[in-house]
Amino acid sequence: MHYPTYEEWFAGLDEAKQQQALALVAKLKAHGAKDAEQWARSEVEEDFAQLATYLIIHRIWLCEIERWSEDPEQWMNEFASYQSRHPLPVFADAAEAVKRLREAGVSAKDLGAVARLVAFSAAFGVVNLIDEGGIRDAGEDLPGWQLSETDADGNLTGRGINGIHESLLSIHEESLKQE
């Protein structure tokens, strides 16, 4: 079976769906999506909240994962400074470990790469937990949860945001395609 290209798919849409797809592509590209057409296609064709999903995972990648390797000296200095002014016992071991690693000659770049991996693992775990929607094996009648899309005014659209963990790594893979 032939899977239509984006252009073929787009040509088969009615005018309202084409306008919806064009608006989505423009918003996605404005926020850095390299594969904007595919995100938009999924939203229009399957009625998934793909723009909201993209915005969430793009933000997580930039603010919570990538930043650890961009300027590792900065976070190490900020952490050491904060820890010396306001010691947090739960992180005392980390402060000492970073100090020992630096004294042993481990570069800030290498520590940044490790921190980025740990940040990805933590972010993936959190979004996977959100995607699970509840604790199913607890054997009790417990509430669940879901992440829901809202419009620009904060009103629920009625669409849940699902599968975030499936797309988290794709943000980085998408940027690699363009290099």
Terminal residue distance = 31 Å
Q: What spatial form do the alpha-carbon principal axes imply?
A: elongated
What is the succession of H and E elements? HHHHHHHEEH
Uncertain runs are none
Rounded mean pLDDT score: 91
Counting DSSP E segments of at least 2 residues, the number of strands comes to 2
What's the gyration radius in Å?
21 Å
State the share of residues found in helices, binned by percent: 55-70%
- Quickly count the helices: 8
Assembly form of the protein: single chain
Strand order of the largest sheet: 1-2
The biggest beta sheet reads: 2 strands, antiparallel
Structural class: mainly alpha
Strand content: 5-15%
Question: Can you tell me the number of structural domains?
Answer: 2
Q: Could you explain the architecture of this structure?
A:
67% of the residues lie in helices and 6% in strands. It is mainly alpha-helical. It folds into two domains: 1-47, no CATH class; 49-178, no CATH class. Strands 1-2 form a two-stranded antiparallel sheet. A hairpin with a 5-residue loop joins strand 1 and strand 2. Helix 2 packs across helix 3 (36-46), helix 4 runs antiparallel to helix 7 (108-132) and helix 4 (50-70) crosses helix 8 (164-178). It is elongated and about 65 Å long. The model has no long low-confidence stretch (mean pLDDT 91).
Brief sketch in words of this structure:
The chain is mainly α and 179 residues long. The chain has helices at residues 6-11, 15-30, 36-46, 50-70, 72-85, 92-103, 108-132, 164-178; strands at residues 147-150, 156-161.
Pick out its properties.
179 residues; mainly alpha; 2 domains; two-stranded antiparallel ribbon
